[in-house]
Amino acid sequence: MHHRNALRLRCLGIDTYQHHVVFLRADCHVSVSEGFVSQSRVRVSGNGRTILATVNVVKSDLLADGEASLSEAARLALGVGEHDVILLSHPAPVESLSLMRSKVYGNRLDDKAMEEIVKDIVLGRYSELHLAAFVTACAGSRLDEAEMIALTRAMIKVGQRIEWRSHNGNRIVVDKHCVGGLPGNRTTPIVVAIVAAHGLLIPKTSSRAITSPAGTADTMEMLAPVELGIDDMRRVVEKEGGCIVWGGSAGLSPADDMLIRVERPLELDSEGQLIASVLSKKAAAGSTHVVVDIPLGPTAKVRTPEAAEVLRQRLQLVGHAVGLEVRAIISDGSQPVGRGIGPALEAYDVLAVLQGKPDAPADLRERSLTLASLIIEMAGSVPRNMGRQQAEVLLENGAAWIKFQAICEAQGGMRIPPKSGHHRPVLARHKGRVTAIDNRRLARVAKLAGAPKAVAAGVEFLAPIGTEVVKGQPLYVVHAEAQGELNYALDYVSTQDSNIITVE
Amino acid sequence: MHHRNALRLRCLGIDTYQHHVVFLRADCHVSVSEGFVSQSRVRVSGNGRTILATVNVVKSDLLADGEASLSEAARLALGVGEHDVILLSHPAPVESLSLMRSKVYGNRLDDKAMEEIVKDIVLGRYSELHLAAFVTACAGSRLDEAEMIALTRAMIKVGQRIEWRSHNGNRIVVDKHCVGGLPGNRTTPIVVAIVAAHGLLIPKTSSRAITSPAGTADTMEMLAPVELGIDDMRRVVEKEGGCIVWGGSAGLSPADDMLIRVERPLELDSEGQLIASVLSKKAAAGSTHVVVDIPLGPTAKVRTPEAAEVLRQRLQLVGHAVGLEVRAIISDGSQPVGRGIGPALEAYDVLAVLQGKPDAPADLRERSLTLASLIIEMAGSVPRNMGRQQAEVLLENGAAWIKFQAICEAQGGMRIPPKSGHHRPVLARHKGRVTAIDNRRLARVAKLAGAPKAVAAGVEFLAPIGTEVVKGQPLYVVHAEAQGELNYALDYVSTQDSNIITVE
Lengths: 504, 504
Prior knowledge:
- The structure is a homodimer.
- Chain A is built from 19 helices and 19 strands.
- Chain A has helices at 29-34, 72-78, 96-104, 111-122, 128-137, 145-158, 188-198, 216-220, 230-240, 247-250, 254-266, 271-284, 305-321, 343-354, 362-378, 387-396, 399-411, 439-448, 483-500; strands at residues 6-9, 14-15, 21-25, 41-46, 49-58, 67-70, 85-89, 174-178, 202-206, 242-246, 289-296, 325-332, 340-341, 422-427, 432-437, 458-461, 468-469, 474-480, 501-503.
- The longest helix of chain A is centred in the C-terminal third of the chain and has 18 residues, at 483-500.
- The radius of gyration of chain A is 24 Å and the shape is globular.
């Protein structure tokens, strides 16, 4: 405590999500001598590490003289605890911010500029506002192809990259991704099981939900632990040929993880960031061959054939530029795939398909087989047009189900997904035929019911397009863990009903 | 406390600037039943008022069961105190966010869309991230003229608008504005004094520093109180014909005040927001005739004659569309105007000019006379080309100085600006002639020395372009209130010296 800018840490346990905040007394000697006020950005050192943080001033006796506090994210980043000494000082200017502003003003960013920005982001030098400005400046179609390549390369460069030993005599590492926007559609666990059972290496990392009721990692977590570090992931993949883990804990694209934390509340779409996000994670996972599914539909993420085609080509082009063989396909995105929407409900669909149950959702089974076939063919391990047959055999003879259980065990042990405590069906108001589904509104019902945080919550979808229904027949069932959440979801349904599932 | 979503307020005194934050225990019954997590946006009601706030979860025993806390800004917005009851619920979706996102994606915003966005901003429905995205989407030259008009109209509409009684037999209300970017250049107090002494109505509102070492309000505050509400402002103007108050406390353009809080840390320039900010405040102040000064120079805010001319015409065009007569002029922005840079130092320059001291900065006197003349002529109160003579007479015969003192008294009493406790000159390294000044770097020295928060801090500029200097002659003096801040500024100077003032 001899250093004039030293303060003792008082742990207040304030969780500001990933935002780094330092709490200082208004009359703290460091604030006074350095001129720190609320919202100042400061350099905080402790335990041999350094971060940038935003100042919040405390005007009560929450902190004693000579004390400061840190938000939980900041405290964990430094690795400090109660009574540890932290040092505060003025940060050096973040030089890449002028490059970021130049992009805001409409100028292009070259490889070097993009790399400097992404490097500073990963080092935590950007505040939440800076991140929001960068994400906004790159949103929509504001990155050209060269910038998308630059962003992807930069995001790969700042993260780790896994190298895999040759497996079953080849060095091919396969992967898959779905652009999203479709509720349910939880093909990944099934595809990984089939492809790994076939003998290919598929080290799959998945995301948690950003704006959807469930991400693949959320669903997989219902069946096995997914928060594996890179070493554990490597152990699972070397043993079983495949895994399904959360990409965030693997830390494969730390830049992407930080951008997502502001994209989520802003709900902004960005073609360039989507491509960079997907491909940087694949490259970091050591993949060589990647299949990307682009669902196309009026309420999917991609809504016109033209946009789907542009995205398809750009994924392949940017992939090629960063050394990935990418095959992108456009699929039907007019309605959910499978019945479950929400972590646990989707997990039950996955189990039904893998176990070959007679009531397993046929559309989920079909789409999983299509993607698995493409991967198997792309890897060159079977003749063209033989992928489908091979995938079907592995699913039907139980090899995929056995492989899936083995992967779950290797990831830390298989689990049984929970069931919801509260549910209520939403009924058809009249006889007719289902002609359209609003994916976004249906997803919103699942979210209002509590998904993904309430893991058993969501929607069980019972009326795909073309279904003939009678008055009073259930179109879908809303599941919730708490009566309050069930009521929120049903309140919303009551204002939106005929907009969600159209019966004509 | 019978309502299931009620919590008791515990005041923790945490100042998050203007950001509304609600602090909740992780195991709080409301968080659990409603599914609130860190970063959730929630509706908080209390004392008959409602705000939106961002959740921070507290994982310690800082809050007891049944307690919640609010950031100071949120607490004051609701007007609640210790142990008061607040109610939390899910907020209705903020509909205008989809319009904001549409702008991010490159679409135009029409009058109605802009109005809905600005209305939601003023109602506090936008989080910091949403504000950052909106500011970024409008930055640079991303608003076209129709959008600038729409934004200006919307910003006028959400604020108050002062109506003035006819004054000295006419209904003209004059005003002035400087686009900024030039350190010092504190003409406003002098111009207001001259123009009011001439008998015109000039209810001047000014801003505090955003990224500069001092705003006019910061400087004027060295001489008299500036935080007057609209009623006090009206009293001063009706008595003296003029005032110089802080626009923020007058609440004349609340939307602008909220946008500035994110523009400041982002350091983004935006032509559309600049125009809307300036003109909405003038219209709200009830002005009819406005003179705008656009300093042009290589390190001023406006750097090319083309950009200056576009801005000049747009100010006049947008002004006309919202019912303001605007005359914009382009002036020399190659170097600071006056000697002082920083609140108190600038205030001493203002006093020297008004008091007619022999050592008063001639450039500040000259520019103030130019602007005052234009205003007097624009108002039609003297024949064309007679404005200059009239302004000079009022300055030289002491009428402006007497008027200024009267205005200060009416605003709450005239004050003597403080002097700095620490200062050191920066010397010419060799003999030569001053050929260029970097306004931005010079301003940065003043800011590192503590300005505007340390009011006596800043720079005393002694070597305008053209000055012949000998080795060791002071080019400028750095003033600070604390030795630490003086050292910061001098450390920066030592790395930048010949880049700040060029001697050839």
